[in-house]
């Protein structure tokens, strides 16, 4: 019996020791519990297991050093190409009427020469009454001229030919004048689309009264747009080797058209032409950033703009994969490149694997 009691006591003691060894106090800090969890190491690096890398869609790319074009970032805006866009204005004041297909809406596709609307000319009551009185006089004179010509033709054997011709000319003149004045009373001007494209802006409502030179429609071809940038350094116009624009994650090359010869707001306007399928995402007047590549070079690494992060000290960093499951932050200095990539001038070495996708999630690991 005594041997049985001793055995039970030893069993209870061993069970209690095991519970304390693997219990709540030590479970969270054990290496087994944290082996598969992303953690920030004391040196600032991040331990990221392979499973977590696949879940966070982390992607890396090897960087190579080379000579890159020194780039200047300019503020610009989207403007219409004068050969692929235009404005529809009324040449005289009047009242708007719908065209054959109704009044077009913003974003609707139109063809060159298509009737967008009509402007019925408006005049003061006294002017309309004077025109009506003049038209009545012309019609009466034309009736008399018709009767006189008929009598002369009956006496054609005794009347000189020149009198008959004079009567015919007078009748034609009166008819033309009456037709011109009659047409002016109910005339309407057709507003035609100047180019093939889409309606960029519309300021038309049925029955609206517009003044002369008032803008009614603006038509633009979204696949042909110009970019206007302002350069505060006038020497930049003579040192342009290329230019680009970032539309989302797409890189849109620009063709340098020329620079103005007069300043605007103490800056020199530079015009670039862009023709690409991604341009319909832009709107006329939209502010954009233009990256102008100069002929001078800078030695560095081309790195995706999505790789740049900020550390707690507000320094620009990139994450470099130094081991299969280890990522280290590198403080870098950058210069603009093309809107999608940046030029890293210091902080990286040739052959480093830089995180290009998922860098934000890696930077949040604590």
Question: Can you describe what's shown?
Answer:
With 366 residues, the chain is of the alpha+beta class. Helices cover 26% and strands 39% of the residues. The longest helix is centred in the middle third of the chain and has 30 residues.
For the termini, the CA-CA separation is: 57 Å
Shape: elongated
Please identify the structural class as seen in this structure: alpha+beta
Helical segment count: 7
Strand order of the largest sheet: 4-13-16-15-14-17
Task: Quickly list its features.
366 residues; alpha+beta; six-stranded antiparallel barrel; five-stranded antiparallel sheet; 7 helices; 39% strand; disordered N terminus
Task: Map the helices and strands.
Elements: H1 2-21, H2 24-27, H3 31-34, E1 39-40, E2 46-47, H4 50-55, E3 59-62, E4 65-80, E5 85-89, E6 94-98, E7 109-110, E8 115-121, H5 125-154, H6 161-185, E9 188-192, E10 197-202, E11 209-210, E12 215-220, E13 225-231, E14 240-247, E15 250-259, E16 268-274, E17 287-304, E18 309-310, E19 316-323, E20 326-331, E21 333-336, E22 341-346, E23 353-357, H7 359-363
Antiparallel strand pairs: 1-2, 2-20, 3-23, 4-13, 4-17, 5-12, 6-8, 6-11, 7-10, 8-9, 10-12, 13-16, 14-15, 14-17, 15-16, 17-22, 18-19, 19-20, 21-22
Helix pairs in contact: 5-6
């Amino acid at each position: 019996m005594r041997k049985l009691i001793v055995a039970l006591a030893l069993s209870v003691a061993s069970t209690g020791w095991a519970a304390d060894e693997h219990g709540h106090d030590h479970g969270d800090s054990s290496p087994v519990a944290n082996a598969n969890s992303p953690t920030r190491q004391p040196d600032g690096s991040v331990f990221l297991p392979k499973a977590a890398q696949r879940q966070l869609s982390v992607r890396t790319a090897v960087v190579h050093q080379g000579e890159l074009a020194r780039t200047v970032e300019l503020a610009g805006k989207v403007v219409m190409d004068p050969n692929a866009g235009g404005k529809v204005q009324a040449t005289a004041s009047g009242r708007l009427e719908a065209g054959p297909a109704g009044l077009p809406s913003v974003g609707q596709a139109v063809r060159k020469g298509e009737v967008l609307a009509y402007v019925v000319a408006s005049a003061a009551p006294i002017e309309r009454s004077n025109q009506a009185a003049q038209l009545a006089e012309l019609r009466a004179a034309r009736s008399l001229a018709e009767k006189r010509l008929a009598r002369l033709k009956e006496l054609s054997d005794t009347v000189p030919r020149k009198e008959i011709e004079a009567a015919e000319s007078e009748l034609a003149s009166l008819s033309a004048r009456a037709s011109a004045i009659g047409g002016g009373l109910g005339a309407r001007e057709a507003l035609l689309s100047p180019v093939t494209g889409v309606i960029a802006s519309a300021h038309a409502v049925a029955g609206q009264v517009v003044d002369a030179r008032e803008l009614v429609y603006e038509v633009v071809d979204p696949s042909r747009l110009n970019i206007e940038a302002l350069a505060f350094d006038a020497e930049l116009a003579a040192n342009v080797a290329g230019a680009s624009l970032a539309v989302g994650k797409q890189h849109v090359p620009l063709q340098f058209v020329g620079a103005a010869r007069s300043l605007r707001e103490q800056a020199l306007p530079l015009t670039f032409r862009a023709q690409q399928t991604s341009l319909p995402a832009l709107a006329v007047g939209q502010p954009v950033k233009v990256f102008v590549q100069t002929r001078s070079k800078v030695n560095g690494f081309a790195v995706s703009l999505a790789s740049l992060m900020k550390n707690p000290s507000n320094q620009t960093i990139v994450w470099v994969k130094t081991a299969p499951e280890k990522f280290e932050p590198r403080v870098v200095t950058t210069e603009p490149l093309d809107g999608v990539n940046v030029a890293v001038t210091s902080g990286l070495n040739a052959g480093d694997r830089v995180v290009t996708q998922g860098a934000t999630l890696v930077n949040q690991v604590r």
